[in-house]
Amino acid sequence: MFGTLNNYLSSVHRAWTNGDGDTLASYISLKDKHIMNRNLYVESPENAVGRLLESPIDEILCAHLKVLYYLGLEPRDFMQAYKYQSQCIQSVVKMLQQLKEENWCLPVMYTACLDLRILAQRCEEMGNSSKPGEILEKAADCLMSCFRVCAADNRSSDSETKRLGMLNLVCQLFKVYFRINKLHLCKPLIRAIDSSAFKDMFPLPERITYKYFVGRKAMFDSDYKSADEFLSFAFKHCPKNFPRNKRLILIYLVPVKMLLGFLPKKHILERYDVLQFHELAEALKEGNVRKFDDVIQRHEIFFIKCGIYLLVEKLKFIVYRNLFKKVYLIKQTHQLDLNAFATALQFVGETDMTIDETHCIVANLIFEGKIKGYISHSHNKLVVSKQNPFPPLNTVS
Amino acid sequence: MSGFVKGVCEDLCPANEAKLRIKEKLLHYFEYKNGQKHVSGKLVKCFSRSAADKKIPRPQDMRTEACLQRCVEYLLKDIVLDTRKPFNIVYDFIFDRLRSVRQEIVMQDYNAGQTIKLMEPMIMFLCYSRYRLCEEAIDNFDPKICEQHLQECLKRALVCYDEIDIKKMNLLEIRRRIFVESLYQMFNLGSPEAMKRCFTLDDDIKLDPLFALVFKICLSYSQGNYYRVFNGIQSLPHILCAIGSLKLPILRRKLYQLFSHAYSSKQLLVPVDFVLRLCAHASKYELFEDCKYYNIKLSEDQQSLHFQKSDFKNDLPVLKCKQEKFVNVKIKNIYLPEILLLKRI
């Protein structure tokens, strides 16, 4: 593509003068075909670029060509490429500041930011950072400098404001923060988006990504109702032809739903290859503690890797609740002997269960509203309500 | 790197500071010879905040690594057992002198291995003191500051551990690390953030029986199985048990709250013995005090409690920590310096 460097630069010049953001973005993208062209691998392109391009696009192009040069070396030098990509971002920031009251250049920023994040990830993977996460954190700082310019652009009209670029950056930043485990840094970004007037005007793909991450964040903060809402939105709107993304959403949505009392359907889990949850749901339904522990143990690595281990462990009290409900259905009475519960628990694998612990577990379930009733200690009995003693979990707050 | 000064002083207190403090009579009680007034004994370098107007310390004002090690040992062996003054005075002295050790670790830019060796005993001391002084009046002991420093030391140690390949540690070093990792978990009981760390740890730690027990306690806490948390805490060894016991007031409150819902009734009573068994109080009178505070009624014969949902005072702050009998028994049975210096675990 383009043949010579000059050809390439004059195409860039045309896109720049036409204000064609998308084309310009493709010219600096590391995913575009032009990066295969060896004529563009120039170590010091300043002179050539200076002859054809004006400020501020010239600086961006210089940095981009240097990135190409270092990626073209044998072996590829990701660290240098990363360094020049961050320089490219700095020039993008300058460009954003110079182009007042216009936002056609946003795609250029998106592309540069995306490439920076991916380069930083590569550097991390190759063990180039002294402390894990250090390079990504620096990259996040770069992205933040773009974010600040966009967020501060409140003088332009609604259709030309750079604030429309905020969500794209926020999604990029989320990806970094989740990877380096700095979730607390998400909070100000969430506030910025939620208070933005464009909340529902951002492009749908960005909104899906956004909801996916805020859903996961809510999950970690134990706010399951919101997590359900956000993740459900993401799952519902994520198109069918992105099965990998749908699977990712499902991995978090399913346990949250289960905690709220909804069990997943097998064929959906099957379609997205997350049958681990089916086994878990079976154990849950049966109130079978031994099976439940066994499933968690067998899929421990999967649960830990996804960061949902603690969440699925929290389902244990629901397993207890389901078991107790079974006892109630067998006994057909409203006055249930706690010894029967203790025996049932021992039967399903809690071999060291004492009557004292049984009391505590039942007490907790009553407190959480998962069982309606009260315990009479002197009779060692749980007296359950005549109406709806085990209310459906989705009605329990 | 030439930016860092390397200490050469072999005395616990550099000569310059000693001269100044003796002249100005700025000695602590423990720095006088046999407690006599005006006769100086063994001085230890005290903490002084680094500030902009301070000169960069000279090598002779800083101590060598061996000297810092000796200093920690002196404080946690000779001073910690000194009974001439109440423990809060002992604590103040050791706290300040250890802080200056910590400052030198930073100023001399010690590596992970060096830092850990000095930091571990400090963590042990702060944990022990936090428990031992928990009933002290706020004028004598500030638990907030103690906890802040403890958390800082713990996190520092964890960062250092992450830098060292566990395969290169010897058995005692691993035992120490397991103990400190366990302390971090118990001190931060209820924090998912802290628990996440468990999943990143090496099997040498994860599969260790002590750490596995601590992990189980944390997991039970997150599941809401307080019965197992109570039992688990009581089965922990000495200092770890002490740190765990600091969470008991919160746990007890939780338990009373659950019971106020589950056993809520106008007529029905719950035996005192049953609740006593669960909540790890040594005597029923301690339990009665809790009940009075949270407004749980006691039957006339003092044999039963009368739980009622509407009685329970939800909005009261959690009661202050107190020393627990089962912890004191464990601590009485150890030789303190040996444990604080992690010579034996």
From TrEMBL, chain A:
PCI domain sequence ranges: 208-389
Question: Can you tell which superkingdom this protein's organism belongs to?
Answer: Eukaryota
Q: Which Pfam families match?
A: PCI (PF01399)
Family, similarity comment: Belongs to the CSN12 family.
Please give the name of this protein.
Answer: CSN12-like protein
- Upper lineage ranks? Eukaryota, Metazoa, Ecdysozoa, Arthropoda, Hexapoda
UniProtKB/TrEMBL annotation, chain B:
What biological processes does GO assign it? centrosome duplication; spindle assembly
Record-annotated SAC3/GANP/THP3 conserved domain positions: 12-299
**Gene Ontology cellular component?**
centrosome; nucleus; spindle
Highest taxon of the source?
Answer: Eukaryota
The protein's matches in InterPro entries, at most eight in alphabetical order, are given as:
SAC3/GANP/THP3, SAC3/GANP/THP3_conserved
Pfam entry (one):
SAC3_GANP
Q: What is this protein identified as?
A: SAC3 domain-containing protein 1 isoform X1
Q: What is the lineage of its organism?
A: Eukaryota, Metazoa, Ecdysozoa, Arthropoda, Hexapoda
